[in-house]
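Hi R.,

Here's the chain you asked about this morning:
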Amino acid sequence: MARIALIAPALARLKRNATRAAIGIGLVALLGALALAYLLIALRHVLEREIGPLWAPLAIGGALVIAALVAYFALLRPRPPTRPAFESQAAGLPPELAAPMRNFETKVARNPLPSIALALLAGFVAASLLRALRRSDSAARSRATDSGRGAEEAQPRPE
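And here is the predicted structure, written out as C-alpha coordinates:
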Protein backbone atom coordinates (compact mmCIF):
# COMPACT_ATOMS: atom_id res chain seq x y z
CA MET A 1 0.00 0.00 0.00
CA ALA A 2 2.91 2.32 0.70
CA ARG A 3 4.14 1.89 -2.87
CA ILE A 4 0.80 3.03 -4.27
CA ALA A 5 0.87 6.11 -2.05
CA LEU A 6 4.21 7.10 -3.55
CA ILE A 7 2.91 6.99 -7.12
CA ALA A 8 0.79 10.16 -6.96
CA PRO A 9 3.64 12.56 -6.02
CA ALA A 10 5.90 10.91 -8.58
CA LEU A 11 3.26 11.33 -11.31
CA ALA A 12 2.71 14.96 -10.32
CA ARG A 13 6.46 15.61 -10.47
CA LEU A 14 6.66 13.83 -13.83
CA LYS A 15 3.78 15.92 -15.20
CA ARG A 16 5.37 19.14 -13.93
CA ASN A 17 8.73 18.24 -15.48
CA ALA A 18 7.12 17.23 -18.78
CA THR A 19 5.16 20.49 -18.92
CA ARG A 20 8.27 22.52 -18.14
CA ALA A 21 10.25 20.62 -20.80
CA ALA A 22 7.50 21.10 -23.40
CA ILE A 23 7.34 24.84 -22.75
CA GLY A 24 11.13 25.09 -22.87
CA ILE A 25 11.41 23.13 -26.11
CA GLY A 26 8.63 25.20 -27.65
CA LEU A 27 10.32 28.47 -26.72
CA VAL A 28 13.70 27.30 -27.97
CA ALA A 29 12.15 26.16 -31.26
CA LEU A 30 10.23 29.44 -31.71
CA LEU A 31 13.19 31.66 -30.91
CA GLY A 32 15.49 29.51 -33.03
CA ALA A 33 13.12 29.80 -35.98
CA LEU A 34 12.99 33.57 -35.57
CA ALA A 35 16.79 33.76 -35.39
CA LEU A 36 17.13 31.57 -38.47
CA ALA A 37 14.67 33.76 -40.37
CA TYR A 38 16.60 36.87 -39.38
CA LEU A 39 19.92 35.34 -40.46
CA LEU A 40 18.46 34.20 -43.78
CA ILE A 41 17.12 37.68 -44.48
CA ALA A 42 20.51 39.21 -43.68
CA LEU A 43 22.23 36.60 -45.85
CA ARG A 44 19.85 37.34 -48.73
CA HIS A 45 20.61 41.05 -48.58
CA VAL A 46 24.36 40.41 -48.62
CA LEU A 47 24.08 37.89 -51.46
CA GLU A 48 21.86 40.26 -53.50
CA ARG A 49 24.67 42.81 -53.44
CA GLU A 50 27.34 40.21 -54.26
CA ILE A 51 25.76 37.87 -56.84
CA GLY A 52 22.53 39.58 -57.81
CA PRO A 53 18.84 39.38 -56.89
CA LEU A 54 18.16 36.37 -59.12
CA TRP A 55 20.89 34.09 -57.77
CA ALA A 56 20.68 34.93 -54.05
CA PRO A 57 17.53 32.85 -53.27
CA LEU A 58 18.86 30.04 -55.44
CA ALA A 59 22.16 29.96 -53.56
CA ILE A 60 20.43 29.96 -50.15
CA GLY A 61 18.00 27.20 -51.23
CA GLY A 62 20.84 25.09 -52.65
CA ALA A 63 22.85 25.42 -49.44
CA LEU A 64 19.81 24.39 -47.36
CA VAL A 65 19.16 21.37 -49.60
CA ILE A 66 22.78 20.28 -49.23
CA ALA A 67 22.55 20.73 -45.44
CA ALA A 68 19.34 18.65 -45.38
CA LEU A 69 20.98 15.87 -47.42
CA VAL A 70 24.00 15.83 -45.11
CA ALA A 71 21.71 15.63 -42.07
CA TYR A 72 19.70 12.81 -43.66
CA PHE A 73 22.73 10.72 -44.54
CA ALA A 74 24.43 11.38 -41.21
CA LEU A 75 21.45 10.90 -38.89
CA LEU A 76 18.37 9.35 -40.49
CA ARG A 77 19.56 6.97 -43.19
CA PRO A 78 18.65 3.34 -42.41
CA ARG A 79 21.74 1.40 -41.48
CA PRO A 80 22.31 -2.33 -41.57
CA PRO A 81 22.38 -3.95 -38.15
CA THR A 82 25.85 -3.94 -36.67
CA ARG A 83 25.09 -6.54 -34.02
CA PRO A 84 26.08 -10.09 -34.79
CA ALA A 85 23.32 -12.68 -34.94
CA PHE A 86 24.84 -14.68 -32.11
CA GLU A 87 24.65 -11.77 -29.63
CA SER A 88 21.34 -13.01 -28.20
CA GLN A 89 22.80 -16.46 -27.71
CA ALA A 90 25.75 -14.94 -25.90
CA ALA A 91 23.29 -13.25 -23.54
CA GLY A 92 22.01 -16.69 -22.55
CA LEU A 93 18.82 -16.81 -24.61
CA PRO A 94 18.02 -20.03 -26.40
CA PRO A 95 17.62 -19.69 -30.20
CA GLU A 96 13.89 -20.53 -30.08
CA LEU A 97 13.30 -17.44 -27.91
CA ALA A 98 15.79 -15.19 -29.67
CA ALA A 99 14.28 -15.55 -33.17
CA PRO A 100 10.73 -14.38 -32.22
CA MET A 101 12.21 -11.50 -30.24
CA ARG A 102 14.27 -10.39 -33.26
CA ASN A 103 11.18 -10.64 -35.48
CA PHE A 104 9.20 -8.53 -33.02
CA GLU A 105 12.00 -5.93 -32.87
CA THR A 106 12.03 -5.60 -36.65
CA LYS A 107 8.23 -5.21 -36.77
CA VAL A 108 8.38 -2.46 -34.15
CA ALA A 109 11.23 -0.71 -35.94
CA ARG A 110 9.41 -0.77 -39.28
CA ASN A 111 6.11 0.58 -37.96
CA PRO A 112 6.50 2.42 -34.63
CA LEU A 113 3.08 4.14 -34.53
CA PRO A 114 1.07 1.00 -33.63
CA SER A 115 3.68 0.23 -30.99
CA ILE A 116 3.23 3.68 -29.47
CA ALA A 117 -0.56 3.28 -29.59
CA LEU A 118 -0.32 -0.14 -27.94
CA ALA A 119 1.94 1.25 -25.21
CA LEU A 120 -0.50 4.11 -24.55
CA LEU A 121 -3.40 1.66 -24.45
CA ALA A 122 -1.55 -0.62 -22.03
CA GLY A 123 -0.76 2.37 -19.80
CA PHE A 124 -4.38 3.47 -19.84
CA VAL A 125 -5.58 -0.04 -18.95
CA ALA A 126 -3.03 -0.31 -16.15
CA ALA A 127 -4.04 3.09 -14.75
CA SER A 128 -7.73 2.15 -14.92
CA LEU A 129 -7.10 -1.14 -13.13
CA LEU A 130 -5.04 0.60 -10.46
CA ARG A 131 -7.79 3.15 -9.96
CA ALA A 132 -10.45 0.43 -9.72
CA LEU A 133 -8.35 -1.54 -7.23
CA ARG A 134 -7.74 1.59 -5.18
CA ARG A 135 -11.50 2.32 -5.09
CA SER A 136 -12.39 -1.21 -4.03
CA ASP A 137 -9.66 -1.16 -1.37
CA SER A 138 -10.83 2.19 0.02
CA ALA A 139 -14.48 1.02 -0.06
CA ALA A 140 -13.55 -2.12 1.87
CA ARG A 141 -11.61 -0.03 4.40
CA SER A 142 -14.52 2.38 4.87
CA ARG A 143 -16.93 -0.55 5.37
CA ALA A 144 -14.59 -2.05 7.96
CA THR A 145 -14.28 1.33 9.67
CA ASP A 146 -18.06 1.82 9.62
CA SER A 147 -18.71 -1.64 11.05
CA GLY A 148 -16.08 -1.01 13.74
CA ARG A 149 -17.76 2.26 14.78
CA GLY A 150 -21.15 0.63 15.00
CA ALA A 151 -19.84 -2.05 17.34
CA GLU A 152 -18.17 0.55 19.57
CA GLU A 153 -21.34 2.63 19.80
CA ALA A 154 -23.45 -0.39 20.70
CA GLN A 155 -21.32 -1.20 23.75
CA PRO A 156 -21.63 1.15 26.70
CA ARG A 157 -18.45 2.89 27.75
CA PRO A 158 -17.26 2.45 31.31
CA GLU A 159 -16.99 5.70 33.20
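One quick note: The chain is about 85% helix and 0% strand.

Cheers,
M.
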